[in-house]
Amino acid sequence: MDKEDRLIRDIVKFNSKIAGNELVSIYYKEIYIYVYKQTSQKELAMDLTQDIFFSMIKSIDKFNKEKASFITWLYKIATNKIVDYYRSKNYKYNKFIEPMEENEDIPIQDDFVLTLEYKEDVEKIQNIVNKMSSDYQEIFRLKIFLDSTFLEISKILNISESTVKTKYYSMIKKIKKEFLKNNLKRRQIYG
């Protein structure tokens, strides 16, 4: 029995807080980075990561090693929590009051403009994706932010690889169309 299996067993059978803390510490950084890439906010990423691990501990008795690896199962929880956040009222409120991090340096002018343009484009794409159904959002987040292969995504979501590919490419087409339409509108408004 490997360490991960032993920790999971100890959590399920003995409700071991020590095993729970150890399992969280093994995967915390990896999950935090996955969440941070999608939120770009340190505090929010920390809150969501904590929520993900709380859900993991709460539902670990439902984990089935025969269906997926533990990390695959954990990424599924993380992806669902991120989708839930972007659908929540909290997101609609927080996106208007996103202060600059206290320790964040203000970049030099040229870099600053590029950074703002990039961040604005990413935010536009995120907004387009957030309006899609959760199954499309899951595929997008796993492909873009986790850099998963279509096969890996199919295993995480328990759907065929061809379905993942079809949905992904259909979604990319929709995102491009919507993104270009929004940019065209903006240019017409601002000249």
Automatic annotation (TrEMBL):
Coiled coil: none annotated. One of its GO terms (biological process) is DNA-templated transcription initiation. The keyword Cytoplasm does not apply. Residues 123-169 form the RNA polymerase sigma factor 70 region 4 type domain. Residues 23-89 form the RNA polymerase sigma-70 region domain. The keyword Transcription regulation applies. It comes from the Bacteria. It holds the Pfam family Sigma70_r2. GO terms for molecular function: DNA binding; sigma factor activity. Belongs to the sigma-70 factor family. ECF subfamily. This is Sigma-70 family RNA polymerase sigma factor. The lineage of its organism: Bacteria, Bacillati, Bacillota, Clostridia, Eubacteriales.
